[in-house]
C-alpha cells in the first residue's frame, strides 16, 4: 500500500498535528478554503496538480480553467466516459480504489480495518435491517481521480438524506484512529433499481473541503447518468446491496480479502446482477 504523505502522517501521527487538525476540520476553515479555491487566485495550483497526479487533459472537455475548483470538478468528454451498457452488468459509479465486504449478521462491516454499524452510518434502523447480510462496496477517491460519479442502473430514487458532520480525512492512517466515516458529512439516496433491487448510494465528504454536490432529484435515473460530484477534498462513495442481489467481480473480492484495493474507472464492469429484479415497477414513479 502506498506510503502516506508527510502532511498526513504529521496531522494524524503527532500531538501537534492532531491539535492543528482540530482547527482544520472546523466549518469556518472549510468555508475559507472553499472561497480561495473558487477564486482566480488559485489558478496557479492547476499545472502543479496536473504534473503531480498525472491528470490526462485529453480526457477533459476543456483545457483551461478559471480557478482550481473549476479544474477539480472538470468533466470528461462524452466519448471518454466508457460506460458499460450491457444489461445486468454492475458498473462502478466513479473512479476510485474499490474494496468489497459482506455486511455481517450484526449489521456491521469493515472499511480499512475499522468496524462500522449500518445503523450508525445510515441513522435509520429500517434501512440497516434491510441491508443486513448484503454487500458493501467502498470506493476511495484519491486526489488524482476523477471526482464526478454516476448512477449504476436505471431506476427511481427516494428523497436524498443529508447527515452533517465534521469533515475528516479518509486516508488509511486516519482510519486507525477511529471510525472516521461517522464524523464526516455524508449524503445518501435509496434507489429502486431495475437489475439490483434496492440500493443505497452514499457520498462521504472529507478533509479539507470535501463538499458533496448532488444534482436535483429526478423521478427516473439512467445507468451512467451523472449523479453529482465532489468539490475539493479526498472523498468516498459507498454502495449497499441487499442479500442475493449482486455477484461482485471475483478478483476484486479476493483482493479485498488480501487487504488490497482495486483501481477502477467510472462505468467499468465490477460485477453482475444475481437475478433480474422488478422492484422498481412496484413503486410510484
Helix content: 10-25%
Q: Name the helix and strand elements from N-terminus to C-terminus, one letter apiece.
A: HHHHHEEEEHHEEEEHEEEEEEEHEE
Q: Determine the number of helices (DSSP H or I, runs of at least 4 residues).
A: 9
Outline type:
globular
Low-confidence stretches at least 5 residues in length (pLDDT < 50)? Answer: 276-285
What can be said about the biggest beta sheet? Answer: 9 strands, antiparallel
**What percentage of amino acids are in beta strands?**
25-35%
Distance between the termini: 45 Å
Q: What is the C-alpha radius of gyration, as a whole number of Å?
A: 19 Å
Rounded mean pLDDT is 82
| Total tally of structural domains | 2
Q: How many strands appear in the DSSP assignment?
A: 17
* Class derived from helix and strand content: alpha+beta
List the helices and strands and how they pair.
Layout: H1 6-13, H2 15-24, H3 27-37, H4 45-53, H5 68-72, E1 89-91, E2 96-102, E3 108-111, E4 114-117, H6 118-122, H7 125-130, E5 135-141, E6 148-150, E7 155-157, E8 161-163, H8 172-175, E9 186-193, E10 198-204, E11 212-214, E12 220-221, E13 226-230, E14 235-241, E15 246-248, H9 250-257, E16 262-264, E17 269-273
Account of the protein in words:
With 285 residues, this protein is of the alpha+beta class. 23% of the residues lie in helices and 27% in strands. It has helices spanning 6-13, 15-24, 27-37, 45-53, 68-72, 118-122, 125-130, 172-175, 250-257, and strands at 89-91, 96-102, 108-111, 114-117, 135-141, 148-150, 155-157, 161-163, 186-193, 198-204, 212-214, 220-221, 226-230, 235-241, 246-248, 262-264, 269-273. 39% of the residues are buried.
Amino acid at each position: 500500500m502506498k506510503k502516506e504523505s508527510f502532511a498526513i502522517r504529521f496531522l494524524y501521527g503527532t500531538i501537534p498535528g492532531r491539535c492543528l487538525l482540530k482547527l482544520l476540520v472546523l466549518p469556518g476553515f472549510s468555508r475559507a478554503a472553499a472561497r480561495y479555491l473558487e477564486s482566480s487566485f488559485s489558478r496557479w495550483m492547476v499545472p502543479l496538480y496536473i504534473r503531480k497526479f498525472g491528470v490526462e487533459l485529453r480526457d477533459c472537455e476543456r483545457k483551461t480553467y478559471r480557478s482550481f475548483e473549476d479544474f477539480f470538478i472538470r468533466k470528461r468528454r462524452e466519448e471518454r466516459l466508457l460506460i458499460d451498457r450491457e444489461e445486468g452488468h454492475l458498473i462502478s459509479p466513479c473512479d476510485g480504489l474499490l474494496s468489497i465486504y459482506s455486511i455481517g449478521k450484526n449489521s456491521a462491516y469493515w472499511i480499512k480495518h475499522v468496524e462500522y454499524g449500518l445503523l450508525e452510518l445510515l441513522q435509520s434502523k429500517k434501512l440497516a435491517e434491510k441491508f443486513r447480510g448484503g454487500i458493501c462496496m467502498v470506493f476511495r477517491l484519491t486526489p488524482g481521480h476523477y471526482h464526478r460519479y454516476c448512477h449504476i442502473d436505471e431506476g427511481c430514487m427516494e428523497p436524498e438524506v443529508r447527515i452533517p458532520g465534521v469533515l475528516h480525512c479518509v486516508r488509511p492512517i486516519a482510519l486507525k484512529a477511529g471510525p472516521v466515516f461517522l464524523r464526516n458529512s455524508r449524503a445518501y439516496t435509496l434507489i429502486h433499481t431495475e437489475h439490483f433491487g434496492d440500493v443505497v448510494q452514499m457520498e462521504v465528504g472529507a478533509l479539507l473541503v470535501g463538499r458533496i454536490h448532488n444534482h436535483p432529484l429526478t423521478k427516473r435515473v439512467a445507468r451512467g447518468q451523472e449523479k453529482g460530484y465532489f468539490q475539493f477534498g479526498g472523498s468516498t462513495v459507498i454502495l449497499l446491496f441487499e442479500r442475493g442481489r449482486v455477484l461482485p467481480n471475483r478478483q476484486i473480492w479476493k483482493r479485498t480479502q488480501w487487504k488490497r484495493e482495486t483501481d477502477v474507472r467510472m462505468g467499468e464492469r465490477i460485477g453482475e446482477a444475481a437475478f433480474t429484479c422488478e422492484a422498481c415497477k412496484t413503486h410510484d414513479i
